[in-house]
Each structure stands twice: as structure tokens, then as C-alpha cells.
């Protein structure tokens, strides 16, 4: 069962709280919708946080922390934040946090992978700034719209003028790089994904952008590589079109521990791109690959036997 969009929107709305700025709320829900249309299931975990709630968080792991005459010290819990009340955009209803959920909507997934970054890119196209672009310390779940105001301006009661961008569009994944480049982040594009894209171009003469982002073109190139190998190694006679269909599925071999070669490489790349890191793209099916296959199978409702067969490939490529 695939989680319903309405479920994600309901949970997100509840988690943002009533103090959330209307434009932030509208944009956050739009982000959840657009991600959903791309098959990425995302939920907002937090939004508005009152000064008292912030004091409670700040008091965790701090001795004798007093705010507004009240002791918020809680040494039974670890420190979670360096932001005192008023020093977080959440306190003004201008920030949200998000996470990815499993396809059935039951589990939270905190892996910062291609999907996670794609959500950030969608958020940015809607006017959010992303905590993953911060240089001092990175806060990957965090998105905010500050209207250019500082904490002290906000504290003094200045209201931000936020402009909703929900009527605009988000550039498709392959164009994401230009959006990301608006902020001079040095980690623009994922290095492993770049290496996969370079390998596919070199091995299969695909002509995809080496941008470090996983989008439809990279997926298509990966399937082309898979089809080429099936023809070459197994004598299959399938069209190398980069489109997953019944013939490609039927020709899929069982790839298991001990396997070596280009098909194993494609499997490793596909697992990585779907957020299940095999810890090595060496074309050798070892324990790292097996763990990643099992984790992918579990996340997709398949029996987790660690052998990639037609059903696993169908979930990876379909
Ligand atoms: Zn946050």
C-alpha cells in the first residue's frame, strides 16, 4: 500500500502548528505535493515552535537554564540545540523541518540521498533556504523563509513580507543544478552520482549531464546499460531504449553474492541512487551490496532474500 498524499498533507499540517506563517505553510504543503508527483514521499515534522517549547529544547543537557523565571534544565536528555528562545526561525513560524517516509508511510527515513536533495531543490524553487547549504553546520531537514529579517528584527515585531511561489513551477530534476548554483555551495552535486554518470557515459555512450543529481535521464541511462549487458552477456535480444518494460524484466538475471561485472555495477549504482548505499561501486557483489539489496527489498515490500532478481530490478527501474 502506497501512502496517500492526503495522509502526508494532514500529518504535515498538524506538525507545523497553528503559529506557522500562512505562506510558509502553503509552500510546505506544495512541496509535499510536488515531491509526491515525482514519487518521493515527504512529511513535515516541525514548523512553529513557541518560545517556551524552544526553552524546553535548549534546557536539555544544560545545567540550571532559566527562561522567563522558570527552570527549563533537563539533564536526563542530551543537548539538541544551540538556539535559545527567539534564535530560531521556528519561533516565528518561518521554518519547517522535513523527512522522507517509506512508500507505505510507516517509517521515517533520514538518509540524505538523491531523494532528500530533490525535496530540498523543490523547496528552494518555492522560495525556501535550505539548512543543507549552510557552511558552518549543516541542518539537512531544515527549510526557512526569513524575508531577509534577523532574529532581533523579528523579536521587535517586524513582520516579514513573504511572496508565495506556489503558482510557479519547479524545474525538472535534470535542471536542478542551476537552482542549486544560486547559493555558492561547494558540495553542489553528489560526487558518487557524478562518478556513476561518468561511467555510464563512458561505457554505454549515453550523453547525460555529469551534474551529480539523480533524475529521469540518469535512470534511463542506467536502464540502457542494463539492457546492453543483458544482450551482451545473456544473449537477450531486447531493444536498448532505456525504458523498463516486460521484456527487460523477463530477461533480468538473479544477481547474488559472489557475482562480478558490469551488471553488478549497475545494481550497485541503482541501489545507491535509490538511497541504499552498497558502500562501494566495484562491480563485486559482496556483503555491502547484499545488505543494500536486503534493505531495498524491505523498503519496497519484497521478501528480503538479498538476491536481486526480476522483482527487485522492477522496483529499481520501473
Ligand atoms: Zn529546523
Automatic annotation (TrEMBL):
**In the record, what terms sit under GO molecular function?**
peptidase activity
Residues of the Peptidase M15C domain: 86-145
One short Pfam family name for this protein?
A: Peptidase_M15_4
* Gene3D superfamilies cross-referenced by the UniProt entry: 3.30.1380.10, PGBD-like superfamily/PGBD
Q: Which positions fall inside the Peptidoglycan binding-like domain?
A: 191-251, 265-316
- The protein's superkingdom reads Bacteria
PANTHER family recorded: D-ALANYL-D-ALANINE CARBOXYPEPTIDASE (PTHR34385), PEPTIDOGLYCAN L-ALANYL-D-GLUTAMATE ENDOPEPTIDASE CWLK (PTHR34385:SF1)
Q: What is this protein called?
A: Peptidoglycan-binding protein
Q: Which organism is it from?
A: Peribacillus castrilensis
Amino acid at each position: 500500500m502506497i501512502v496517500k498524499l492526503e495522509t502526508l498533507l494532514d500529518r504535515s499540517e498538524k506538525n507545523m502548528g497553528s503559529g506557522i506563517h500562512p505562506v510558509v505553510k502553503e509552500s510546505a504543503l506544495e512541496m509535499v505535493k510536488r515531491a509526491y508527483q515525482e514519487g518521493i514521499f515527504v512529511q513535515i515534522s516541525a514548523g512553529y515552535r513557541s518560545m517556551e517549547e524552544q526553552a524546553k529544547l535548549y534546557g536539555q543537557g544544560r545545567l540550571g537554564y532559566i527562561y522567563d523565571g522558570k527552570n527549563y534544565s533537563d539533564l536526563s536528555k542530551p543537548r539538541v540545540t544551540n538556539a535559545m528562545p527567539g534564535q530560531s526561525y521556528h519561533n516565528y513560524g518561518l521554518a519547517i523541518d522535513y523527512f522522507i517516509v517509506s512508500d507505505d508511510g510507516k517509517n521515517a527515513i533520514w538518509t540524505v540521498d538523491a531523494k532528500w536533495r530533490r525535496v530540498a531543490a523543490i523547496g528552494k524553487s518555492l522560495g525556501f533556504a535550505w539548512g543543507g547549504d549552510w557552511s558552518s553546520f549543516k541542518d539537512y531537514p531544515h527549510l526557512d523563509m526569513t524575508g531577509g529579517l534577523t532574529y532581533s528584527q523579528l523579536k521587535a515585531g517586524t513582520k516579514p513580507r513573504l511572496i508565495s511561489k506556489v503558482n510557479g513551477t519547479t524545474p525538472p530534476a535534470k535542471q536542478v543544478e542551476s537552482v542549486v548554483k544560486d547559493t555558492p555551495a561547494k558540495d553542489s552535486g553528489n560526487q558518487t552520482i557524478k562518478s556513476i554518470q561518468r561511467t555510464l557515459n563512458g561505457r554505454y555512450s549515453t550523453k547525460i549531464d555529469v551534474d551529480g543529481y539523480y533524475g529521469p535521464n540518469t535512470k534511463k541511462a542506467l536502464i540502457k546499460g542494463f539492457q546492453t549487458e543483458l544482450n551482451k552477456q545473456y544473449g537477450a535480444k531486447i531493444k536498448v531504449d532505456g525504458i523498463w518494460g516486460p521484456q527487460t524484466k523477463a530477461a533480468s538475471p538473479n544477481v547474488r553474492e559472489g557475482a562480478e561485472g558490469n551488471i553488478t555495477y549497475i545494481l550497485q549504482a541503482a541501489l545507491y541512487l535509490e538511497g541504499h548505499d552498497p558502500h562501494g561501486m566495484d562491480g563485486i557483489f559482496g556483503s555491502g551490496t547484499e545488505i543494500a539489496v536486503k534493505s531495498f527489498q524491505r523498503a519496497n515490500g519484497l521478501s528480503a532474500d538479498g538476491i536481486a532478481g526480476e522483482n527487485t530490478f522492477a522496483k529499481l527501474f520501473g
